[in-house]
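Q: what does this look like with flavin-adenine dinucleotide bound?
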Amino acid sequence: MISTHPILKDVVLLGAGHAHVTVLRMFGMKPLPGARFTLITREVHTPYSGMLPGLIAGTYGFDDSHIDTGPLARFAGARLYQDEAIGIDLENRRVLCKNRPPVAYDLLSIDIGSTPNVGDVPGAALHAIPVKPIDGFLGRFEALRARVLAAKGNVSIGVVGAGAGGVELLLSVERRLERDVAAAGHDPAGLAFTLVGASDGLLPSFPAAMGRRFREICEQRGIRVFAGARVDRVETGALHLETGERIALDEILWTTQAAPAPWLRDTGLALDARGFVQVTLALRSVSHPEVFAAGDIAAVDGYQLPISCPSRASTRCAKARRSPKISAASSAARRPRRINRSVRRSTSSPRGSGPRSAPATA
Ligand SMILES: Cc1cc2nc3c(=O)[nH]c(=O)nc-3n(C[C@H](O)[C@H](O)[C@H](O)COP(=O)(O)OP(=O)(O)OC[C@H]3O[C@@H](n4cnc5c(N)ncnc54)[C@H](O)[C@@H]3O)c2cc1C
């Protein structure tokens, strides 16, 4: 789409997370004259994580479970830069990229997701396969599958993390490998599966009955479950629990609590204690009003999780409950008066620790 309007605002969408996909779709359907959108994304095909278990189980193909941001960006009249952001120069309002020159913005929205926290447990980064980033995981899962087939299915596989992602992942991996091992002419009974979680039950952020039901399902399928089992360290072929117990495993998948991108710490944005971007209910940075954050990377200031929202997916739930269907970045670009109101509120927030910037008007 070619716009004949002069460019008045550069809106940069960092990361092709779920919120930004919706923002692009909305602006494609209802363009905003004068606003130029730029999407910076590490990969052009962005995965829809809700379908990841189905992709692993073999129910869906790659194209079913990924969104091609190329046609989407064209539909929205947006520029698409395939690159990885490595920093933000807040003073000069530029996103710093790994391979291309900095990208200037008037408004910036960050939707870069999170990764499982392998940093806190010694050995996990070296010996476990993190489920995110998903693009990296899919390649590592294919390599795991090849090792399982080479071992004729005599492999023990463990998933660390008994939240929704971990339980879903384990059941999907089990289904896929049993089928593939049988199809290769080996006995799938050689496969052994283990689920390890630090909380007392499975699915700790869901009602207890749901956790019990999934535990029954695991037992029926012969899956060993270690609940209330905190992993202390990981070594080749084994997990060590805080209790001193050792669990021997050939393959270890890691889906524990999410961690933010470490480079955010150097930006000067106000972050919460764990390093997620602190935002208001309008998903606007509490320290820099021209910056927004959505999805896993955002920590909504003062918002309590409803019980049915899985861990870090919280902000998406918050967004769905508190905001209109489009993200704060899009509503900010459309409604300058709302921006100014929320700028006043956020700049007076006592929680913002970073420097204050001049309010942005869209
Ligand atoms: C197995 C599994 C199943 C799940 N199922 C569900 C479910 O059914 N429902 C649900 O609500 N949640 C589910 N989740 C949780 C869900 O993954 C996250 O809550 C959701 O993906 C978060 O979306 P997001 O927009 O924050 O970012 P993501 O969807 O993670 O997207 C972030 C994007 O930013 C890009 N990116 C990251 N860093 C950079 C960078 N530096 N520069 C440029 N681009 C970058 C990434 O490549 C990616 O495309 C599941 C998670 C797992 C692991």
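Confidence is low (pLDDT under 50) at residues 307-362. The chain has ten helices and 22 strands.
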